[in-house]
Amino acid sequence: MTVYLFLPAQTAGNIMVKGLVNDIKDIQVVGTTQHLQHKVVGKISWSPVPNLVFINVPENIRDEYITVLKVTLDKPVQLYRGPGGLN
Fewer CB in a 10 Å sphere around the end CB: N or C, the chain? Predict the structure, then answer.
């Protein structure tokens, strides 16, 4: 499954994705051959709350108007809809 993230022109550095249950297989900047790395943080093994995903978007790959990231997932999109934190 693939989803696309649309980032305004001035977006660079770490962007955060919250509530995504899926595993990310690949992130590519549309219109380039550039693949980006992501970092998963905050996952507690006993909690159903998903981790936070940070994607580092370098300034030199930004599009003048809008940067589009093609995010390839392990399966169809699953979003967390339960309570957050340690409730």
Answer: C
Query: In order of start, what are the domains of the chain with their CATH numbers?
Result: 2-73 (2.60.40)
> pLDDT digit string (tens) for 27-51?
999 999 999 999 999 888 888 888 8
- Please state, as a whole number, how many other Cβ atoms lie within 10 Å of the Cβ of residue 38: 16
- Enumerate residues 6+ apart whose C-beta is below 8 A from 52: 16, 17, 18, 40, 41, 42
Instruction: Identify the H or E element spanning 80.
Output: none
DSSP characters for 10-37?
A: T--EEEEE-SB-SPEEEEEETTSS-B--
Q: Residue written as tokens 């693939």?
A: 2
